[in-house]
Amino acid sequence: MKTRTITTCGLLAALAVVLSLVERLFPLDAVVPVPGVKLGLANVVTLFALTRLSVREALAVMLCRVTIAALLMGSVSAFLFSLLGGLLSLVVMALLLRLEGRFCSLLGVSVAGAAAHNVGQIAAAMLWLKTTAVLTYLPFLLVMSVPLGLVTGLTCAVVLSHLKKIDLHV
Questions:
Q1: Do the beta carbons of residue 37 and residue 148 sit within 8 Å?
Q2: Alpha carbon of 63 to those of 70, 81, 82, 135: distances in Å?
Q3: What is the C-alpha separation between 119 and 15, in angstroms, rounded?
Q4: Is the pLDDT of residue 112 over 90?
Q5: What is the C-alpha separation between 61 and 17, in angstroms, rounded?
Q6: Which residues of 51-76 are buried (b: 16+ CB within 10 A; e: fewer)?
């Protein structure tokens, strides 16, 4: 990797960790009736990385974010949940970004990524708890992935739009 790319990945990973920390300060439980639902602010960084960097570099950013966030504020189970959710989300978004414009927009990619993240987390919960009973929670998470994925996608779209205005190339 070039020095510029490594630096960009490091900055994006740091931003994603900070967004994860900020997100924990504002739990949505008071507004959203589905426990454990989060905005997914760090996923804005993953989506951004997928649009501006290679899949490999976006993967490195996501893995750094998941690992550092788990070390700072999580547990082994939180790491597993974030890792599986993040990996599945990244794969789905990377595949759909290849079809962006023909099949779906950036917002659609983001919603699909949010849904995939929830599927990954439910898979992690099934592995961790050794039960399929947690599958009953998946429909509620999938419903929430639509508005929250739209927020994530819209945020990323606004950032990308502003970067075009200032002609900043990552």
A1: yes
A2: 11, 12, 9, 25
A3: 25
A4: yes
A5: 10
A6: bbbebebbbbbbebbbbbbbeeebee
HEC string of the chain?
CCHHHHHHHHHHHHHHHHHHHHHHHCCHHHCCCCCCCCCCHHHHHHHHHHHHCCHHHHHHHHHHHHHHHHHHHCCHHHHHHHHHHHHHHHHHHHHHHCCECCCECHHHHHHHHHHHHHHHHHHHHHHHHCCCHHHHHHHHHHHHHHHHHHHHHHHHHHHHHHHHHCCCCC
Cα distance from N-terminal residue to C-terminal residue, the chain: 14
pLDDT at 24: 82
Q: For 100, phi and psi rounded to 5 degrees?
A: -55, 135
Tens digits of residue pLDDT in 62-85: 999 999 999 988 788 889 999 999
**pLDDT > 90? residue 94:** yes
Quick one: what percent of the chain has pLDDT higher than 70? 96
